[in-house]
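User: Quick sanity check before I run a bigger batch. Here is a single chain. Can you write out its predicted 3D structure?
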Amino acid sequence: MPESRAARSIREAFQSGRPLTYVHSPEEHRVVRILEEVSRGGLDSRPLPLWTWSITEGMCHDGASPEAGAETARGALDFIIACGQPGVFHLKDFHEPLRESAEVRRRLRDVYESCRDRQKFVVITSPVRFLPEEIERSVLFLELRPPDLLELSEFLRDETRRSALGEAPQDVLEQVARALQGLTLDECRYALRRALAGGRQLGHDSLPAVLEEKRLLVNRSGVIEYVESGTNLDDVGGLDGLKRWLLERRKLFEMRESISAEIVPKGLLMMGIPGCGKSLCVKAIASCFQLPLYRVDMTEIFSGRHGKPEGVFVQACHMMEEMSPAVLWFDEIEMGLKTTETGGEQGRIFGFFLTWMQEKTRGLFVAATANRIETLPAEMIRKGRFDEVFFVDLPLEDEMIEIFRIHLVRRNVDISKFNLSQLTQFTAGWTGSEIEQCVVSAITRARLEDREVRESDLIGIAAKQVPLSRTMKEQISRIRGWAFERALRASPQKNG
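Assistant: Done. Predicted structure follows.
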C-alpha cells in the first residue's frame, strides 16, 4: 500500500535504528495519526505498541488508564527505560521539560543508551524547536512538511465518507487535494467544510469555495498573496513573441514528471517600461498553464514587520514549493535582489535565490517582473537562472490597435463604427495602461452624458494626454539601451 511522505520519513528513521526523533510541527493530531499508521505497520511486519505521554495526561497506551509513576517528564523517561518490550513512545511538547530541567536532559541521554538497538523509539513532538546542546547529536530532527497528495487524498476520503453525501470519487479527491496543497490538515478541514456548506457535493462546483478559503489562509502570511487570475493570453495585446514562447513551454511544463529536469521550464524574467503589460502577462501565464498564481511582495518582506527579511524570504520560497504546482510572481524583484554584496543580508538573500532557482521543485514556475532593470545584477539575468529574459517595450502600431480593441470590447462597446488605426495617430508612444485609461475616461464621459461612447471621445482625451514616453524620454532610452543585448524582445520586431 502506498505510504505518505511524512509516514515514510518516520518509518525510515525507525528502520535506521535511531532511538530519538524530534518532530517539529504544530499539527499534533496529524503527528498522532502518522505515528499510529507507522506503529501498525511496525518493523518487519510486526506492529509496535504506541505509548503517548503529555504533562496533563501522563503515559497512556491505547486509551487505557495512565501508568502509575509516569506522570512527570522524569517519570516518563524512567518508564521508557524500564519497559522490556519494543514500542513507540510519543512525548508531546517535551521541549519545556528539556528547557527547564538538567535532570531531564541527563535522563534523556540515558534513554538513548537504553533504547538503542532494542526497537524502542522515542518521538518528541512540539511546535517549538528546542534541542539542548547535550542531546543535539543524539537526536534526529525532522521538520514535518505539509501533507502530500497521498495524505491529502486519504484525509479527504475519510472526511467525505463521514458526510451525508458519502465518499467522493477518486478523480474528485485528487482534484481537490491538488487545490489544498500547502495547507495543514486542520486548514484543509476548514476549507472542506466551507466547500460542502449548504449541502454542496465535493466536485468542480465546490472548488471556488476551497480556493477562497485557501486564499484567506495564504494571505494571512502578509508576504504571499493568492491572486485571482481571470486573464488569458487573448486579453494581452501584442507581445506575440512572448505568447509563442509560453505556449511552447506549457507543453514541456505539463510533461515535467516524465522529462529530464534540465528541460523543465523554471520561469522567466520580464523587464521593461512601466505600464506595458508585464503584470497582465503574469496573470495570463497562470491561466495559460492552468495553475494558481501567488505573488511575493518584496517590499513587505523587507519591511521588518514579519521578522528578519532573510528568514521570511527563505520561508516564503519553501512554502511555495509545498504549494506547487503553481506560478510564483516576484513583482518588482529588483527591490529585494539588487545587490551582490556578500556581507549584507540582501547579498545572502540574493545568493539563496540564485541557488533556489536552480534546485527548486519542478512544479513551480517563477515569473519575475522588473522596472528598474539597470539595478539587476548580471548573475540574475544569465541563462540557467531563468529560461528566458524578455524585454517589454512600448507597443507597436498594430499592437496598439489590438489593445484598443481588447479594452473596448471588454467594456461592451460596439467597435464597428470605430477607425482604430486612426486612433494610433494620436497615441504614438503610449503604453498599454495609458491606452486603457483613455478608454475608461472616454466611457466615463459618455456615461455622464447618458449616451454611447464615440470615437471623438477617445481622440479628444488622447489629444490632451502627455504620455510617459515623452515625460520620461531619457529614462526610457536608457532602459532600451541596457536591454538591447541582454534580453529577448517580447514583440517579434524592434519598435520603430
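The mean pLDDT is 86.

User: Great, the batch can go ahead then.
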